[in-house]
Specification:
This protein has 22 helices and 26 strands. By secondary structure, it is an alpha+beta fold. The strands form six sheets. Strands 6-5-14-15-16-13-17 form a seven-stranded mixed beta sheet. A six-stranded mixed beta sheet has the order 8-2-1-12-19-18, sandwiched between helices. Helix 14 packs antiparallel against helix 15.
């Protein structure tokens, strides 16, 4: 089988490498000669970059990229609207990526200077691609990866109906090391609250930033496309009210290599192929730039299409399967881009939440726990409750084995309003809590350091409780991770989690928008916390943790405090006698990937092995560098070491 790829951009080159790795004869045909400078730089998600990393061992020179860890969106007065973590994202120059790819080809597999003209057909199938220089390339399957103005697509489906150019984007690379260093790992964007105008910049190397200006197309008469001088004047005039760092970036920019991008898209095609000719990348689908997903989607296209060459030996099945796999997700990206364009052009009509840019594809379904399950569990807890920390392994095991039956709702109980007049048995002061925690740590063999109550005592559990409710507004699943992280900070790391600094840190580490979370803590989240307190009082809950199990007939069963796992199973069986425990099989490392961190006893409990076996398994992972350890005076917690 021979595959002829038309277009040597990112999609075409990625596909060519992947197919050659399957020992398929591939020829990539590119219209340009040499490496084009146009395109500057782009963001790439962890999904796309992970595919590129597989190519690293075969390359003579490394792929130059810059990690981008956060996205921050601010008003032009520098008030922050959005701040989110970008796990595994990076910024790359297009020329660097193309150069990296070219190392993996030779002149026999990558043909330059070939501008596509037409196909030669026999029996309604393409047998060769003809190029304007007279070259003819015969093959069995043909792939159009020739960009948004694809001639291959025109051959298959005719001219597409592009959307109107409502937003323009000017893109450049500014050489200014001080700016790049100041914003070392942040994709920073300023956006006007009054009109469709924004400026963003991303570090692309140690001494460069790629920048872009997005603007309502009605703001210009085309003058910005006349000369570098006029382009510079246009940008500076448009952005004169933006922060001074924007002007600094523009002053350090060479406008002779800066270009204007007329953004547009088109509807999802009815198919990505006809006969033995297919399309990938922008040739197949084109979204507006607001989603920051174009390059990643090109690589994901290539990876998906290549995978079907293993499963089928005919082009029809390969292309149909590719369309089925990718079209729905791509249609969503196109729709997201259009919705974000509306928000961009009409900023006054939308709240801060309307600014959210879907940089990170969130595969989690925020409604998973809202599915109808036979048992609703009201879990009353508190971020500073040591017994709730002890119960964590049981919650995790219930998730593994009985998740199909349990819809667990987390409710904050308000354990510590303040120390004024506080009197709960032997606990009357922060030092009493310190001693209590030391006892809990010893009795249950769990890392728990009570010194925080001596060194930096919390004055209330309300702020982290309200923070949890703010997290739930964004995403319930991430909120649970956020609560776990707050507990780790408090119980293991001795951090005062009433402080906004640690709340923001925890939010970012769990994929939440920290700016919106902190803002919600001042309003909506307080109301939700008050509702939790009312629910706690109505159910006469006075200790934590408390679990209230309710089935469809409103039968209620309750468990309080630390109970054995068997007790939880008994309650489930009483409410659903035919409940079946889910069988699961996770390797030691995959268990860490699922839960991120565990104590040795927690690993033993979850994996149903003895402490001795758990220690051996954990020791092997640690020796291989797959997990790290965090140790306080009362024990060790093992942490999955994520890839760089």
């Amino acid at each position: 089988m021979k595959v002829v790829i038309i277009g040597g951009g990112i999609a075409g080159l990625t596909l060519g490498i992947l197919l050659r790795r399957k020992n398929i004869d591939v020829i990539v045909n590119e219209k340009a000669i040499g490496i084009e400078g146009r395109g500057h730089a782009f963001l790439m998600s962890a999904d796309g970059y992970s595919i590129l990393k597989d190519f690293f061992p075969d390359a003579k020179a490394p792929l130059l990229s810059k990690k981008v860890n956060q996205f921050s969106l601010k008003k032009i007065n520098k008030e922050e609207l959005i701040k989110i973590q970008l796990d595994g994202w990076c910024c790359l120059k297009r020329s660097s990526l193309i150069s990296f790819f070219y190392q993996l080809f030779d002149t026999n597999t990558l043909k330059q200077g070939r501008v596509f003209s037409h196909f030669i057909f026999e029996n309604e199938k393409a047998v060769a691609a003809v190029f304007e220089n007279g070259a003819i390339e015969y093959g069995d399957i043909f792939i159009g990866a020739d960009g948004s103005n694809s001639k291959v697509r025109d051959t298959l489906f005719g001219k597409v109906n592009f959307s109107n150019i409502d937003v323009k984007e000017i893109v450049g690379i500014s050489s200014r090391s001080s700016i790049a260093n100041q914003q070392a790992a942040i994709f920073q964007k300023y956006q006007s609250k009054e009109k469709g105008l924004a400026f963003g910049f991303i570090p692309v190397s140690a001494d460069e930033v790629v920048w872009f200006m997005q603007y309502d197309a009605t703001f210009s008469d085309g003058c910005e496309e006349s000369s570098p001088e006029q382009l510079s004047l246009f940008c500076k005039e448009m952005l004169k009210d933006f922060p001074s760092e924007v002007t600094e970036i523009l002053d350090a920019n060479n406008f002779s290599s800066t270009y204007v991008w007329n953004t547009r898209d088109f509807d999802v095609l009815p198919a990505f192929h006809k006969s033995n000719i297919g399309l990938i990348g922008d040739a197949a689908h084109l979204a507006l730039p607001f989603t920051s997903a174009g390059t990643t989607n090109a690589i994901l296209d290539a990876n998906a299409l290549a995978s079907f060459f293993d499963q089928f030996d005919n082009s029809e099945n390969i292309f149909r399967s590719f369309y089925d796999k990718r079209s729905i997700n791509l249609a969503n990206h196109i729709e997201q881009g259009r919705e974000l364009k509306k928000l961009f052009l009409n900023p006054k009509l939308h709240s801060e939440r309307g600014y959210i840019v879907p940089l990170v594809s969130d595969q989690e379904d925020n409604c998973v726990d809202e599915l109808i399950k036979p048992i609703k569990v009201l879990y009353f807890t508190d971020p500073v409750c040591s017994t709730c920390w002890v119960i964590q392994p049981i919650l995790r095991k219930l998730k593994l084995e009985y998740d199909d039956y349990l819809n667990i709702e987390y409710h904050m109980g308000g354990l510590l309003p303040s120390w004024i007049g506080y009197d709960k048995g032997t606990i009357k002061t922060p030092s009493d809590v310190s001693q209590h925690w030391e006892n809990v740590s010893k009795n249950y063999s769990i890392p728990l350091d009570g010194d925080v109550w001596i060194e930096d005592p919390l004055n209330s559990s309300f702020p982290p409780s309200i923070a949890f409710k703010a997290a739930q507004i964004q995403n319930n699943n991430k909120a649970i991770l956020f609560l776990r992280r707050l507990k780790e900070m408090l119980f293991l790391e001795k951090k005062n989690i009433t402080n906004a600094e640690w709340i923001e840190n925890a939010a970012l580490s769990c994929g939440l928008d920290s700016s919106i979370l902190l803002n919600d803590m001042k309003g909506k989240a307080i109301e939700l916390f008050q509702e939790d307190l009312r629910l706690t009082a109505e159910n006469k809950i006075t200790s934590f943790p408390t679990f209230l199990f309710i089935d469809g007939s409103e039968t209620k069963l309750i468990l309080k405090g630390i109970q054995s796992y068997e007790k939880f199973e008994e309650v489930i069986k009483k409410l659903i006698p035919n409940a079946v425990k889910k069988k699961w099989s996770l390797s030691a490392i995959n268990l860490f990937k699922k839960f991120n961190n565990m104590t040795t006893s927690e690993f033993s409990f979850l994996n149903n092995v003895s402490l001795e076996t758990a220690e051996l398994s954990i020791g092997e992972l640690f020796e291989k560098g797959l997990i790290e350890r965090f140790e306080n005076k009362n024990g060790i917690i093992w942490i999955y070491k994520t890839e760089d």
